[in-house]
Amino acid sequence: MRGLIEFSNRPKVRDVVSGLTKYPSVQGVVAEYQGLWLRLMHSDPVLWDGLWREWRKFRPFPYPPPPSSDDSHEPGLGQPLDLLRSRWQEWFDGADPYQLRVCLRPGDSEDTSRVPQVGADFPIVFEERPLARLTALRTTAGVAKGTLGGAVKSIRNDWLGVTCGHVVKGASTVTMEDEARSLLERLAALIGNKATNAIITGECVKKNELVSLAPGGLCNPYGSTDPSNTVDVAVIKAPLETAQLEKWTGAPAPRASARSGQAAKMLSASGPRRAEIGGLNIYYVLGEGADSYCFGGLFEVLAPKHAPKIVSESDSGSWIMRHGAQGDEWFGVVLGSDDLRGFAMFAEPVYEWMKAAALV
Which of 10, 148, 261, 264 shows the smallest number of beta carbons within 10 Å? Predict the structure, then answer.
């Protein structure tokens, strides 16, 4: 993410994004890698190196699309990033492999007057997407269901559960089902005629309040009149010492420590599943009911190749774990979806918010 974060903070990029915020048809802007870069990154190393040597010999012919493996997420597959960067710089005369993706609301791409006209010295692509929304499941009784993705060791040396603030809303008491970690554990409990989960009651000790957009208001991550939200957190105090959930001590993985396209794991109430870290949301509008919320600095959560959608209702609060040198590391918290991809907060600002509240 380091490259995408630096790219999104460049003055020229900020100027383009500021201009896009004036269009009601734009629901979000994503900084991401260009498609060719991603394909090169996951290409077969042996065949790729042969094509590279041919290109060096016969250029300026266009570089051919590299062959890719059927599964681009196999460990160890792909090119060393330093080597890829140096060769990319040579192919494209020093240009960066980044682009902006402008995400339009459904139906707005058909009206050319509602499509922004922008120019820049970096690629900009437009895509019509489903509306994004927060993913707490609200029942007819007004009860919200979400996920307690994990717990963090507190400053008092006990465990504090971390989920999304929009899941808890104004409730002070929270009821949780402690589900078994794996399908095998659930089957074993079922065969043994034992309960597969236990009921835990906890208290919401701290949560931040989301700021909704005014009617007709536009999302502007740089403005003061329509400020963007960066976190949506609720902290739960409950007897979680023996609960079957991820427990984390200390600061989480920095937001710059993972790269777009990296394999990850999503810890949700329906069980862990494979995921992929996507692009950086410079800003995005997520709705809930009649309200809309402007968020800045989220990242996308994608389903692996050939998998169905990654985030469903009640998955708000799920933790995203990235693969680190010493094992899985806490990297993010899911809060929304547009049915094709998920949206998550970085764990780093969530932890910083908890630290400012003297909780960790």
Answer: 10
**42 alpha carbon, distance to own chain's centre:** 21
348: region left, alpha or beta (phi > 0 left; psi from -120 to 50 alpha)? alpha
Rg, the chain, Cα only: 22
351/244 Cα distance (integer angstroms): 21
d(CA 189, CA 198): 12
pTM above 0.70, yes or no: yes
3-state helix, strand, coil in the chain (%, to 5): 20, 35, 45
E strand or H helix at 19:
helix 11-20
What's the sign of the alpha-carbon dihedral 115, 116, 120, 126? negative
Residue 353 near residue 208, CB atoms below 8 Å? yes
Question: Which of 308, 312, 317, 299 is closest to 338 using CA atoms?
Answer: 312
Q: Within 13 Å and on the Cβ side, how many CA atoms surround 352?
A: 11
In the three-class reduction of DSSP (H, G, I as helix; E, B as strand; rest coil), residue 323 is classed as strand
Please give the single-letter amino acid code of residue 57: K
Model pLDDT for residues 29-67, shown as the tens digit of each residue = 999 998 877 777 766 666 666 666 666 666 555 554 454
**196, 270 contact by CB (below 8 A):** no
Neighbours of 234 (CB within 10 A): 24
Where residue 134 falls among pLDDT bands split at 50, 70, 90?
very high
Task: Quickly state the pLDDT bin for 69 (edges 50, 70, 90).
Answer: very low
Report the distance separating Cα 264 and Cα 279, nearest Å. Answer: 14
Count Cα neighbours of 318 within 13 Å in the Cβ-side half-sphere: 32
Asked whether the beta carbons of 322 and 246 are under 8 A apart, the reply is no
pLDDT at 26: 93
User: Longest Cα pair distance anywhere in the chain, in angstroms?
Assistant: 70
Distance CA 259, CA 95 (A): 19
d(CA 104, CA 81): 32
